[in-house]
Every structure is written in C-alpha cells, then in structure tokens.
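Weekly sync, protein design subgroup
Attendees: M.S., D.O., the rotation student, P.L. (late)

Item 1: inverse folding check
M.S. brought a backbone from last month's batch and wanted to see whether the design step gives back something sensible before we order anything. D.O. pointed out we never logged the input encoding, so this time it goes straight into the notes. Structure tokens as presented (130 positions):
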C-alpha cells in the first residue's frame, strides 16, 4: 500500500501532491490493478489534512479512470500506467542513486540536487532529448 507524504516546498497543492504520488506509484509498478488506496480516514490521520482534500484527490484519480471507489469498502486501482519494463526501472534507479551519491559527495543539498536535475531535464526536453 502507498504511504502519502506532503512537501510544503513543492509548490503543489496537497490534493495534487496526492494525485501525483498515486500516478508515480502506478507508473513505477508500485501499485497494481486491484490494490486498495489508504482510506480517507487513514490519510487524514497520518497527514493532518482536511478530508475534503483527500476526497478531491481520489475523485480526480477516479475521473482519470485510474481508481474506483466502492462505497463502504474503499478506493481501488483500476489500471496502471506502467509504460516500460520494471527491469529497466531498476537499472535506471541504480544509475540515479549513483548520480545522487556523486552529487552529495560534491556538496549539493536536496534543493540544489532538485534544481540541477529539473533544469537539466527541462533543457533536454526542449532539445527533444528527453
């Protein structure tokens, strides 16, 4: 089961952070069809957020056809977003971990690492590389 977290520095609203985390988990194969998302009550207790925020996120995911709510039972994954082999994800994750280690050894903090990655990603996307 997925465990949600909120990042106050992300610039995204809490409900969009929840939506994004579910999408990422679906894309990486961490959630499969039939898996249950945490109950609204559990998410509210863990993150200390308004229940309407969680409901809004779950409704958004339902509208996208990724989950389905079963009244009195919970919210369940109806499809995944896996678009590459999980083996490739594993290799890429290892490469990324090595890169993160090098960045740390070079003295970069979390914010600097994120800025470097995102600017490089955006530049590569604009150039048609990524």
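Designed sequence read out in the meeting:
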């Amino acid at each position: 089961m997925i465990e949600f977290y909120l990042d106050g520095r992300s610039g995204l609203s809490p409900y969009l952070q929840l939506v994004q985390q579910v999408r990422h988990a679906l894309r990486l194969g961490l959630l499969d069809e039939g898996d249950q998302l945490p109950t609204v009550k559990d998410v509210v207790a863990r993150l200390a957020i308004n229940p309407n925020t969680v409901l809004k996120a779950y409704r958004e995911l339902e509208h996208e056809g990724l989950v389905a709510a079963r009244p009195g039972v919970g919210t369940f994954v109806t499809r995944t977003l896996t678009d590459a082999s999980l083996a490739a994800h594993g290799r890429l994750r290892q490469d990324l971990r090595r890169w993160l280690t090098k960045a740390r050894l070079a003295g970069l903090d979390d914010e600097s690492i994120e800025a470097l990655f995102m600017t490089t990603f955006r530049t590569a996307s604009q150039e048609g590389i990524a």
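Discussion: The two ends are 30 Å apart (CA to CA). The chain is about 55% helix and 5% strand.
Action: P.L. to compare against the previous round before Friday.
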